[in-house]
Amino acid sequence: MAALEGAGRTGERRLSPSPQDWLDVEKVAKKVFGAVDWAKLGEIYFHEDGERQWQERRQLVIELGGQLARRLALHVKPEGMSLWAGAGVAELPVLLAEVLLLDRTVVAANLLEEECDVLNAALAQAAPQVALHYETGDARDVAGDQAFDHLGCISLFTDPETWPAVSGVTYGRLHPVQLDLEQFATERDQVRELASGLFALLNQEACITTTAEEVAWFLELAAKQERQIEPTDDVIETAVVGDPVGFLLLS
Ligand SMILES: C[S@@+](CC[C@H](N)C(=O)[O-])C[C@H]1O[C@@H](n2cnc3c(N)ncnc32)[C@H](O)[C@@H]1O
Predict the structure, then answer these.
(1) Is residue 5 part of a domain?
(2) Which candidate in 6, 131, 170, 209 could, as Cys together with 152 as Cys, close a disulfide (CB 3.0–4.6 Å)?
(3) CA neighbor of 231 nearest in space, from 64, 239, 241, 244
(4) Domain assignment present for 180
(5) Is 84 among the domain residues?
């Protein structure tokens, strides 16, 4: 599907898919989206009117996912391995592009079994030939002892269901008078531990796809471990949570 072309910060070979390749993978993403049970996914993501809310966002998810995948292709090597922690439907077009166009292996983990089931059912129906499967569980457990050259972490540490206090502070939704300091400290330790566990799975040279709101967790780790970490200039909006996404290059 894709041609090899020299590029990249360390001179490794990178895949350079053609415009037609990108259109083909977008077609696969649309086919998979056509097989998703949006009513069920609507119940998982929204308090009410979920199916309609998804109808309004579906096209945007495909478009922004394609944009993110095109940028990611500039920062990762073919045949590498990605760990996507907290991956949901918004990441699906990117994951498909990684597997189909960039010849990469993708491990996608999410705590919500129902969401994984809905997405896996759609993949099995519309794209059974694609080696892509969402695993239910903590991303660290799902990853096991594998090593990765890319970590995808989009609106994970800001998850309001798992860490309401950390999320509230990050987004400026919690006023100091409302903040339970003990709960906040506990959640911050948990997020630090998760960030550190995911960071430890990365190769010496690696890329992290993450949101502006989550960058600080990785900067802290890189500083402690005296590793170089550089943000790239890319900024892409996300369709679901809405946080701007970019890349950190680790060396
Ligand atoms: C706010 S949602 C974001 C979903 C998706 N990344 C997006 O941007 O639309 C956060 C997700 O992270 C998942 N999550 C939280 N902790 C996790 C962990 N330790 N391992 C894997 N997934 C986790 C939750 O289950 C939830 O689905």
Answers:
(1) no
(2) 209
(3) 244
(4) yes
(5) yes
Note the pLDDT tens digit of each residue in 35-47: 999 999 999 888 8
CATH code at 215?
3.40.50.150
139 lines ligand 1 (CB under 6 A): yes
Distance 153 CA to ligand 1 centre (A): 8
CB distance 89 to 240 below 8 Å: yes
The backbone torsions φ and ψ at residue 239, rounded to the nearest 5 degrees and listed phi first, read -80, -25
CB 196 within 8 A of CB 65: no
Question: pLDDT tens digit string along 162-213?
Answer: 999 999 999 999 999 999 999 999 999 999 999 999 999 999 999 999 999 9
The helix or strand, by DSSP H or E, that contains position 249, with its residue range, turns out to be strand 245-250
Q: How many domains does the chain have?
A: 1
Range of the domain at 93: 16-250
Ligand 1 centroid from CA 21, angstroms: 29
Both tokens assigned to 234: 């890319």
Exposure string (b/e) for 140-178, b if CB count within 10 Å is 16 or more? bebbeeeebbbbbbbbbbbeeebbbbbbbbbeeebeeee
Alpha-carbon gap, residue 232 to 251, rounded angstroms: 13
